Amino acid sequence: MKILDRFNRFAGKWMPLLTPACLLLGVLFPNFTGMGIPLVPYVFAVMTFIGALSSIFRDVKNVFRHPGALLLTMAVLHVALPLMSLGMGKLFFSSNPNLITGMVLEFVVPSAVVAVMWTTMGEGNVPLALSVLVVDTFVTPFLLPLTLNLLLGSGGQMDAGAMIRQLIFMVALPALAAMTLNFATHNRTKETLPKKLAPFSKLAVMFVVASNSSKVAPYVRNFTWQLLAVTAAIFVLAAAGYALGWLAGRVSRQNSGTIAAMTFGAGMRNISAGAVLAAAYFPAEVMFPVMIGTLFQQILAACYSALLKKFQPRETAAQEGAQSA
Asked: What is the structure's pLDDT at 59?
């Protein structure tokens, strides 16, 4: 157990570097890492279950009593960013529909489980972060194929029914099982299991990234100026996700904790889910824009976390001054 605890602390500290390292491993040794691809949906389901063990039904119920922040975050996730990715894709890569599809797919997948971790570290509104995760988890199996069809007309290129079934298996059912377990044990499992299983969750993330990245090896090895431009576009869009979440919170006059939850909830994407879907239902080139996002997501989260901490004291001081006046 001590070894697992040390690994968990190490991985938690260095995940912004470990994730790109796993991507590089998959690119350099695709024949080896690619052998794990058949196991990816099952490993992903386990990862979702572990992540959702921090969620309870009551948290979702409480947030729904005042759903403004939740709805704004969902609007950034599933309206603003998909439209921005489509617009940028058509503007710069109109000759390559696979790259456009990958860019859109990157920004229609659900919010990431790790957004809850960053919200917790940033002293944010954890119930809101959990609710964004839970609600997004349950609507994505139906919303994602619909969005792709509306924006890209991809109905003829993918089996929407199979995609919905796979998303339900990988995301919705494990999340429901985890919250049901919490309910049945009166939340005792919430207090104990997440910490015990956290090392396995991080190992699962590394396994999924390394396995799926084997499919983009030919494109990375034959890197072109166009792929460099795609990388830059994904970076801009990923950074915009965090910024839009923060802006939505500020414009709607949320408190600092809620703004933090909205920032990470809108900015962080379940890239592993996107990679699994890209590998299963689209040409290999579609996976490049999806997987390249692993290079930025954790690093951007760390940057925005530092910015939130830097500006939060000023906001608090201003609020205290207003109250005393």
From this structure: 67
State how far the Cα of 24 lies from the Cα of 121, in Å rounded to an integer: 28
Q: What is the C-alpha to C-alpha distance for residues 100 and 91, in angstroms, rounded to an integer?
A: 10
Q: Which segments of the chain are extended strands (E)?
A: none
Residue 194: HSE in the Cβ half-sphere, 13 Å Cα cutoff: 19
CB 44 within 8 A of CB 276: yes
Which element (helix H / strand E) includes 322? helix 297-324
Q: Which two tokens stand for residue 232?
A: 């830059």
Structure tokens at 214: 């084997």
125: left (phi over 0), alpha (psi -120 to 50) or beta: beta
Terminal CA-to-CA distance of the chain, rounded, Å? 54
From the list 318, 317, 294, 306, the residue with the least C-alpha distance to 17 is: 294
Query: Can you list the domains of the chain with their CATH numbers?
Result: 41-212+223-312 (1.20.1530.20)
SS (H, E, C) 116-179: HHHHHHCCCCHHHHHHHHHHHHHHHHHHHHHHHHHHHCHHHCCCHHHHHHHHHHHHHHHHHHHH
Rounded to whole angstroms, how far apart are CA atoms 26 and 220?
11
263 token code pair:
């920032």
Quote the tokens at residue 160. 């929407």
Of residues 61, 59, 55, the one with CA closest to residue 193: 55
SS3 90: helix
**Any idea which residue has 């699962």 for tokens?**
204
* pLDDT tens figures, 193-247: 878 888 887 888 788 778 877 777 776 777 778 888 999 999 999 999 999 999 9
Contact criterion met (CB below 8 Å) for 273 and 107: no
**Phi, psi of 234, deg, nearest 5:** -65, -40
Cα torsion angle, 36, 274, 268, 217, sign: positive
Mean pLDDT of 130-140: 80
For 16, left (φ over 0), alpha (ψ -120 to 50), or beta?
alpha
